[in-house]
Predict the structure.
Amino acid sequence: MSENVKIKDEMFELLPEEEKNSEFIAMDVKTFLQDAWDRYRRNRLAMIGLAFLIIMIVMSIVVPMVSKYGFETQNIEIRNAMPSLEHPFGTDKLGRDIFVRVMYGGRISLAIAFSSAFICLIIGILYGGISGYVGGRVDMVMMRFVDILDSVPTLLYVILILMIFGNTIPAMLLAICFTSWIGMARQVRQQVRSIKEMEYALAATVIGASHSRILLKHLVVNAIGPIIVNLTTMVPSAIFTESFLSFVGIGLDPSIPSWGKLANDCRDLFFTFPIQITWVIAAISLTCLSLNFIGDGIGEAFQTKKR
């Protein structure tokens, strides 16, 4: 017996302590959101879009508060002035500072866009989630109602709502959200129907989890990627809708200087002072472009096939 142990000791030698972990490859444990954020950060365009959007939001809040010019302060002596250190974007036909008005208009337009997107997100998740989870006749009835609602042009709803409730911000939110949640609801329904037969959802059903917990904690959470991507597309759509309606004169009240209203004010001076409308168009276009970059980055970050 001792000879066998001696032979084994000669054949095998213990590895020194300093060499035991020399080939060990360490990997940081990350949550799903942490891994998605790491993927998002590697997308330069997405990070540029996020940085621009943050800067635009901060400036829209801070600039009207700290500027010595109000968005309605008039000075006929310097009307239609070109950009300068005193007025970075120049002045309009009434001598009002365009820079302050563009930032204040951004506050209004961005607030309407993000608020309407959040409202559509809540309605879309609840409506589409219930429809996809329950299925059967309930799903058929709910989807047919959506089809009927979506068959009428959105502009007719918008005009009717603004005529009834007036050109106020709540009325504009109602007009934008009246049918905009339909796309979100269909997206959520499709995702819920595709994953509700997965093992983890069936296991939650077996252990007695409530339907609301299964829907919100298991199904909607695992479909969060496409939902967020759809959400990022709704914000620029809301900005364009509000700007278009205000530009054609059926949007917000003229006393509310949104981006669309500012563009409408500069329309008469397009051929004489085109630079005035350029600032508003640039603000709308760059903001929507940054949101599209953010949406593309989020879509790639949450794409599970690349994980």
